[in-house]
Amino acid sequence: MKKEFVVIGLGRFGGSIVRELIEQDADVMAIDKDTERVDEYASIATQAVVADTTDEAVLRSLGIRNFEHVIVAIGENIQASILTTLMLKEIGVKKITVKAQNDYHAKVLSKIGADQVVHPERDMGIRIAHNMLSNNVLDYLELSDEHSIAEIQANDKLAGRTLIGLDIRAKYGINIVAIKRDGEILVSPQADMEIELRDVLIIIGSDADINRFEKKVL
Ligand code: ADP
């Protein structure tokens, strides 16, 4: 059976979620209060509906309760985003993901029961900044306030060395969880494995430790 989602708010963020879900063969009900935006998605989404989702009666009439996962991608209108989340919670939606505009917004969303709060602009900003500081940092993903996962392109200092020889865990407190090589992912690499220049290392650790590693080694 196909997975069924609802996406509320068809701006750039919500819109790209709709397109990708459809591309991945899911069913999507796309909702926006703006008719033009809805028209744009009429031929893309499984169903495209004009509705103001801050109105509980409207949400109920659309049968949103029956969908497994709803994402609230309402951008600048924080009040509408919070009210919509509250209504979804009240009608008993199982899983709610919400895009936050800022940290205060995120805090409120968590308090009223959003299952997942995402900060796409902030997270993308962090990734790009790390990539600007070092071209070898391909990606940077925050796990918590203090810990992250980074994807690192191997360089001359790393190539030809074994994991045990580098002793990254003892020296920097970070772990290499996987190595990407030739399109394959080698999970939990052995200590005697030799790093190659084209390898991408996936490392996990505290932000402070990763930053130290970036400065010293990359
Ligand atoms: P982005 O930053 O992702 O481009 P936007 O702020 O442009 O986000 O888009 C948010 C969308 O959410 C807009 O298309 C807007 O019409 C829609 N929206 C805002 N409030 C409501 C609401 N109460 N009900 C339904 N859709 C809404």
The hetero compounds bound to this protein are: adenosine-5'-diphosphate
Low-confidence stretches: none
**Largest beta sheet: what is the strand line-up?**
3-2-1-4-5-6
Q: Would you identify the CATH architecture of the largest domain? A: 3-Layer(aba) Sandwich
**Percent helix:** 25-40%
Number of strands: 11
Strand content: 25-35%
Q: Mind telling me the CATH superfamily name of the largest domain? A: NAD(P)-binding Rossmann-like Domain
From the N-terminal CA to the C-terminal CA, the straight-line distance is 46 Å
Q: What is the CA-atom radius of gyration, in angstroms?
A: 21 Å
Number of domains: 2
From the helix content, strand content and strand pairing, which structural class follows?
alpha/beta
Succession of helices and strands: EHEHEHEHEHEHEEHHEEEH
Outline, from the CA principal axes?
elongated
Averaged pLDDT, please? 94
Element layout with pairings:
Blueprint: E1 4-8, H1 12-23, E2 27-32, H2 35-41, E3 47-50, H3 56-61, E4 69-72, H4 78-90, E5 95-99, H5 103-111, E6 116-118, H6 120-133, E7 137-142, E8 147-153, H7 163-166, H8 168-172, E9 175-181, E10 184-187, E11 200-206, H9 207-217
Parallel strand pairs: 1-2, 1-4, 2-3, 4-5, 5-6
Antiparallel strand pairs: 7-8, 8-11, 9-10, 9-11
The structure holds adenosine-5'-diphosphate (ADP).
Briefly say what this structure is.
With 218 residues, the protein is of the alpha/beta class. It is 37% helix and 27% strand.
Jot down its keywords:
binds adenosine-5'-diphosphate; Rossmann fold; 2 domains; Alpha-Beta Plaits; 218 residues; five-stranded antiparallel beta sheet; alpha/beta; single chain
